[in-house]
Amino acid sequence: MPPKTKEKGKKTGAQKKKQNAGADVEAKSAHRRTVLEKELLQDHLALRRDEARRAKASEEQLRQRLQVLEAELEEARSEGKAIYAEMSRQCRALQKEMEIHSRKLEEEVTGLREQLETCQREAEAARQEAEQALGERDQTLAQLRAHMADMEAKYEEILHGSLDRLLAKLRAVKPQWDGAVLRLHAKYKDSPVWAQPPGSLKL
């Protein structure tokens, strides 16, 4: 039993040494963390101060740039106003010119419409006159054809009448002519005159 008591005492002392060593390590670690945190805070603070200086410098540059931009903007506004005034003047002049040109075109269109209406009326009148002239010509041609047909019928009637009268006269004198021919033939048939060439006989 006593030997067991000694072993327990040894174990308790070793444990205490281990606990003390662990506490020292933990204290050193805490100190080191504190130092590191302090250094980090100092670095962070320095970084912040540097950023603040840069921000201040940037702010000053931005302020100066803003002043320049405001001056340029004011100048651009002045130029814009001048350009707007000039463009407005040119626009009014162009609008006035367009109104004058539009009135001229309207007058020309009105004149052309009047001329077109006049031409249409004249063309219609000419067409009616042409139709009337064609109608009169057709009527005249029809009258002339009818007159010519009537004259042809009358001439044919006159010709037939004249031929009929001539034939009647020929038929009336034919017996006398035949008798005279026979007498002449009997009178001259033995005469030397019949021996003469044709055309030399004298009655």
Automatic annotation (TrEMBL):
Main location per the UniProt record: cytoplasm
Annotated Basic residues bias: 7-19
Alphabetized UniProt keyword annotations: Cell projection, Cilium, Coiled coil, Cytoplasm, Cytoskeleton, Flagellum
Stretch list, region Disordered: 1-31
InterPro entries xrefs: DRC12-like
Localization: Cytoplasm, Cytoskeleton, Flagellum axoneme
Ranges in a coiled coil: 52-143
Cross-referenced PANTHER family: COILED-COIL DOMAIN-CONTAINING PROTEIN 153 (PTHR28656)
Family membership: Belongs to the DRC12 family.
Function: Component of the nexin-dynein regulatory complex (N-DRC), a key regulator of ciliary/flagellar motility which maintains the alignment and integrity of the distal axoneme and regulates microtubule sliding in motile axonemes.
Subunit structure: Component of the nexin-dynein regulatory complex (N-DRC).
Name of the protein described by the UniProt record: Dynein regulatory complex protein 12
Organism field: Leptonychotes weddellii (Weddell seal)
